[in-house]
Amino acid sequence: MRYRKLGLLLGIALIVFMVVAVASAAVAPSSDPTEIKAPAGPDAAADRQIPGNQSPAHLPTTAAPRPAPLAVAGPGSELGTNFAGLTFHNQRRDADGGNQLSLEPPDQGLCVGNGEIIEPVNDLFTTYDTATGQQTGPFESLSQFFFGVHEIDRTVNPPIFGPFISDPRCYYDASTNRFFMTILMFARDPNTGAFEAPGTVQIATSKTGTPTTNPSDWNFFSLDVTNDGRNGEQTHPGCPCFGDQPLLGIDANGVYITTNEFPINGPGFNGAQIYAIQKSALIAGTTPNVQRFEGPQGPVPFASTNYQNGLPYSLQPALSPRAADFATANNGTEYLFGALEFGKKPFQLDNRLAVWALTNTASLNSTPDIHVKDTIVNSEVYGFPPAIVQPNGPTPLADSLKEHENLIDGGDDRMQAAIYANGHLWGASDTTVKTPVRGVQVGTAYYELTPSVDSSGVPSGTWVKQGYLSVRGDSVTRPSIAVTPSGKVAIGVSLIGPDYFPSAAYTTFDDSPGSAPTTLHVVSQATVPADGFTGYHAFPPGDGVERWGDYGFAAVDGNSVWVANEWIPGLVQGPDLANWGTYISKITP
Fold this sequence. Notes:
Structural class: mainly beta
Number of strands: 35
Number of helices: 4
Largest sheet: 5 strands, mixed
Mean pLDDT: 89
Low-confidence stretches: 1-31, 42-48
Radius of gyration: 22 Å
Shape: globular
Strand content: 35-45%
């Protein structure tokens, strides 16, 4: 639920019905308010544009990175099983008898382990077999899975709204042979769809290493993040609130959720929140110990002096591919990675990152007494990226609305992923780059450092490498990253630009200091543009820029990496309002 324009959007957009014939369509607008999923709260770019924050460390635009472009080629010899994943049509038509809303982007998740792939997107999930790539589960509504209700019940008149859900995440914990899946939720008035308290993060933990999409195979825990004092927690400014973009990290002792906190029914931003949750209790299906770190107004303040005029946001907790990678020093340590560019528009640059450490995480198993500290490390330059141009192509929905083809949202420069593997902390994010052809485009910045924590719990980091993914005159966006036990690295991206309809691609390299990516391999090349409703003015707040991503995922499976990213598999189908899809690839570097 990222990359949105600031503002409270409580209304539900109008429905458009359409009939597609090859490259043209006829659409008849309707006043039916029950088709498009309303953006949440400051959905808008609640987390794309953090309100009221300005960093004094912005660099002049002349400092924008100018990386050497990667070669672009077809799939490499390391590519194994690969297949098209879930689509907009699956989300709207194939799940829960069609009692789903239209939405984009997919917010793709991916987790792999024990011979099983689980792919959640907004707002459904399914399973696949790792050996064949064949789908093994149904198209299961996440609303039904977590709550047993329809996203919108169209079998009654007037329809009944279910809770708002978004931002699925998924992870396979090899140390316990369990899958974890999370999602943001806050309530809606069943009759009007208006947003209301409570706000929660839902956590599902599989009971075995081979779960199905049936809720009976999972344990469930609801983490209340409303923060208005209703359950004895501290009351935060402007709350009741919801925890936007819940991010997921795991170590030997805990499951860590971080959020960006926004009021449900008004303006404001309360910074990042951290919730540490006892992993063993989630697995056992019992009530876990929880320790809450609640920002500048909380009982354990963040080191806000490091942030000058900005509140910390989008803190990526680290995931580790195997038990041997967990940081066990300091009675258990969980690292987090965060960006420090607090700008609100393209071309604002920074060259600092934040490294966080939660120490004494083993205390979650008794009396929680985790300590949180952060530090600033100087980094390569990164900055807020621009929107992306697509090639001209058939756009049935745009034609029916008499609008122009969409640009694609280039995202922002928050940290998209954090991985702790082989003693190194990895991160990846979108950034503005200058290319030899066509100037400013979107690229990927990646980071590898060796973190440590001193006796007082303060982290530090020594750089191993930093670098960029960039191509000549086109953009690479929404990076996912994973590292194998042997130190092989794979990054998956969407490749988009004047030369490429939105396609799925990847690159590989090693974690050694001298290794760097040289070639971007296109695994599935699209042949038509993205043609989704979020960019069109007929669907407020459309402004000509279609939402994308919002993120991809990568997962380690032995010595292989599975990557999943958004792409465009074909034209809009029938009455659908978008044509996004996902693509999943196994890579053995």
